[in-house]
Amino acid sequence: MPIKYPYEYDPKKRKIAKIYTKTKIMNGVFNSILLPVLFFAVLLFSGYSLTIKDISIALAGHFYLPVYIIIFLTLLTLVQLPLSFYSGFIYEHRYNLSNQNIHSWLKDFLKELILMYIISVPILTGLYVLIQMTPLWYIYAAILYIALTLFFDYIYPVVIFPIFYKTKPFKDEKIRKRIFEILKKIGIKNINRIDIANESEKSNKANAMFAGIGSSKRIILFDTLTENFTPDEIETVVAHELGHYVHRDILRFTIIESLKIIPVFLIIIAVFEKFSMTFSLAGISDIAGLPLLLLTNSIIELILMPVMMAYSRKREKQADLFALDATGKLEAEISTEKRLCDMNLGDDSPHPLVEFFLYSHPCAKKRIEYALEWQKEKTKPER
After folding, report:
1. pLDDT per residue as tens digits for the range 121-156
2. If phi over 0 gives left and psi between -120 and 50 gives alpha, with beta otherwise, what is residue 136?
3. Distance CA 285, CA 130 (A)
4. pLDDT at 190
5. Which pLDDT does position 64 carry in this prediction?
6. Which residues of 76-235 form beta strands (DSSP E)?
7. What is the pLDDT at residue 193?
């Protein structure tokens, strides 16, 4: 069946998208932000965190730190699990966006859980060892945090992504040729590989990404993109991702994280100095204070969220403009935005406050407006 081009919004999907997105956002805010904050507060004010510490010492003696962290993470996971299952499985199936059966969903969930323990337990244990070793712990912790941020930003697509997705070389020579022509046009010579990821096993949502460092650099296209979008549309999506690469957006965000991490640690230290006695904690080095540490960090992140989201939307806009400059295909850019919005059931025009606080990308309506403004600038007569 030929792909309709240029794509126009499906009015039925626009109505459904409003409902889907509203509930999806509410679920996400509650399960990822409000519920953890409530969990941290309950552990603190009830004294259960101290009880978990006592249990950990009884079980592991001097090695109680990782045991406490494992119990803590397990309890948090159990608290979040019902809504995670509803939002990630039941709700997605209700709107025909998920292709996973229960076995497949549980398999991915368990993979995520194992990775969480593998990554979080050593990191948090190491943090508390540092805190107990030196009063300058926050400086060493900041350096390690920056190193870990770089590691996960650049290594994740190479190491973690294949755990969840099957990939193989992309063999459509027509589209490959187009992509390599764009790479040549913008002067990128060190990307020689294009892979395709089998997203259709999981969902009907489309995407693409840039991955890897050094010789592992490559472009990854989701099969839901290559099978449902025209070559021109695929070009605009790839060019957008290359815009992030050329603009060094990963590095930009790493620098921002680096600049804020020591002030965040200093605020956390101040909070512990003021409230440790309130919760019967022995100070910031007390593992029973982990909920207070995470609660403080969560509040800081909530305060900074509008600023970070605004900056993210700015970077996304710049990537869109880069794609337009690289391809010159206004019609394909607009068609892509509309098709993606319908496929993913995105709200093309959310309430301004919702977009301000929660959207890391400009809504589709604004992205189309930016594209039309780009066209006007290009067609202005020279003075």
Report:
1. 999 999 999 999 999 999 999 999 888 887 777 777
2. alpha
3. 9
4. 79
5. 97
6. 167-169, 194-197, 208-211, 218-222
7. 86
Enumerate residue ranges in the chain where pLDDT < 70.
1, 157, 213-216, 382-383
As given in the structure block, the two tokens for residue 160 are: 């973690």
Cα 224 to Cα 87, 208, 231, distances in angstroms: 21, 10, 13
Q: Which residues pair with 168 in a beta bridge?
A: 196
Q: Is 222 helix (H, G, I), strand (E, B) or coil?
A: strand
Owner of token pair 């982990």: 290
Torsional sign, CA 72, 154, 199, 359:
positive
CA distances from 91 to 17, 98, 111, 177, 244 (A): 13, 9, 21, 39, 31
| Helices and strands, number each (H, E), in the chain | 16, 4
CA atoms of 79 and 336, how far apart (whole Å):
38
Angle at CA of residue 156, ends 33 and 306, nearest 5°: 35
Contact at 8 Å (CB) between 252 and 233?
A: no
User: Quick check: 196 and 168 in contact, CB under 8 A?
Assistant: yes
In the chain, helix, strand, coil percent, each to 5? 75, 5, 20
How far apart CA 178 and CA 125 sit, in angstroms, is: 48
- Tokens describing residue 3: 């792909």
Task: Give me the residue label for tokens 């409230």.
Answer: 275
Q: How far apart are CA 114 and CA 165, in angstroms?
A: 16
In this prediction, residue 215 carries a pLDDT of 65
User: 203 by DSSP, 3-state: which?
Assistant: strand
pLDDT at 124: 96
Domain boundaries, the chain: 11-166+245-303
Residue with tokens 């913008």: 186
Q: Report pLDDT for 382.
A: 63
